[in-house]
Design goal:
The chain has 15 helices and twelve strands. The strands form two sheets. It has an eight-stranded mixed sheet, sandwiched between helices.
Length: 350
């Protein structure tokens, strides 16, 4: 059977590669990867490999470095980092044509609004993947977490086309519909922000960080600030595939010594032992911090909600990105991070 629908995966890293491989294996859609040259070469040589549950699945989607030669498709799966979204918009316009649907698989908040500024909001589907995966080598994606799936939403209230739902259901991944796109984004943000800036600042694995009561307390305070911003904005926390976010909110309200034993292990295990992507981004001189803790601080200021810990973390990550020579002063030194955050929060209280 020849697939009647065509999907372009724009940004075939860990998320795009994992979903592109799963969708290609269904046979329901024709998948084309728009990826970096090394990924294109690897897929052309050995196919797109997805490793999970002790097995290895190989698909052979088309892979190209540029979207210019492609005809418009029925849907685009956007899987680039938040800081690359704005630059991708011209390519997205071309790929979407007059009727294509955009599934935006970004973490953090704010990119849906960026896209809606130039694209039809009625054709934008906020989406998220709650599976932890990594591209260990070009064209080879490994799943690390046991749980997780896909959640889809809407910016306009318009339903997702049934053929898209059928394609994702055929992957075997749990699929969830979230009516409010803001709830999807902010609920995932509560998960993504945990340990991300600290891991990047300290250049340390998240497992060790969650065992440090002082670092966990910083993460807990940042989490609770974000939850208060959500409440002020009227955004409801929702469960996502594999992640009972409302329950995590309740647990985080417990005193830190009670919350840490359960949530600390959960935070580390949810990533399958992998560090958040923010750590690798820091090493490359990039960061999504503006869409994570920075977004919490901005919306908190707009809504009159104090967010001193999020502001402090966002400012420090930004400082280390701009001045890489300062990173060594924090690498592997949690005491230094705790002191810096405490001093910055105290200065904001004056």
């Amino acid at each position: 059977m020849v697939p009647e629908r065509r999907i372009a995966v724009y940004g075939a890293g860990a998320v795009g590669g994992y979903l592109g491989g799963k969708l290609a294996r269904t046979g329901l859609v024709d998948v084309t990867l728009v990826a970096r040259s090394r990924v294109v070469a690897a897929v052309e040589e050995h196919g797109l490999v997805v490793r999970e549950d002790g097995a290895e699945e190989v698909s052979r989607p088309r892979a190209v470095e540029s979207s210019e030669a492609l005809e418009p498709v029925d849907a685009v799966l956007l899987a680039v980092r938040t800081y690359d979204v704005a630059a991708a918009i011209p390519d997205l316009r071309h790929l979407l044509g007059a009727n294509g649907i955009l599934l935006s698989f970004q973490n953090g908040v704010g990119t849906d609004e960026t896209l809606a500024g130039t694209l039809d909001p009625g054709r934008i589907v906020p989406a998220t993947l709650t599976v932890s995966a990594g591209m260990e080598a070009p064209g080879i994606v490994t799943r690390y977490s046991r749980s997780g799936g896909v959640a889809l939403s809407s910016m306009s209230g318009r339903p997702v086309p049934p053929w898209i739902l059928r394609a994702f259901e055929a992957t075997g991944l749990p699929l969830l519909w979230v009516p409010d796109g803001r709830s999807l984004r902010w609920s995932k943000l509560l998960l993504n922000m945990l340990g991300a800036p600290a891991s990047a600042i300290l250049d340390t694995d998240i497992g060790g960080l969650m065992n440090d009561s002082r670092i966990f307390d910083i993460e807990r305070r940042a989490f609770l600030e974000a939850a208060r911003v959500m409440d002020a904005a009227g955004i409801k926390a929702v469960s996502l595939p594999g992640y009972p976010v409302p329950r995590a909110r309740l647990a985080m309200r417990l005193p830190a010594p009670l919350a840490q034993p359960t949530l600390g292990r959960r935070i580390a295990s949810a990533r399958g032992g992998r560090s958040p992507g923010m750590r690798a981004d820091m090493q490359r001189g990039r960061s999504e911090i503006a869409a994570f803790n920075g977004a919490v601080a901005r919306d908190g200021e707009r809504l009159g909600v104090a967010t001193p810990v999020n502001r402090a973390l966002a400012e420090l990550v930004g400082e280390l990105i701009a001045h890489p020579e300062q990173r060594e002063a924090f690498r592997g030194k949690p005491d230094r991070l705790v002191e810096w955050v405490q001093a910055r929060v105290k200065s904001q209280d004056r």
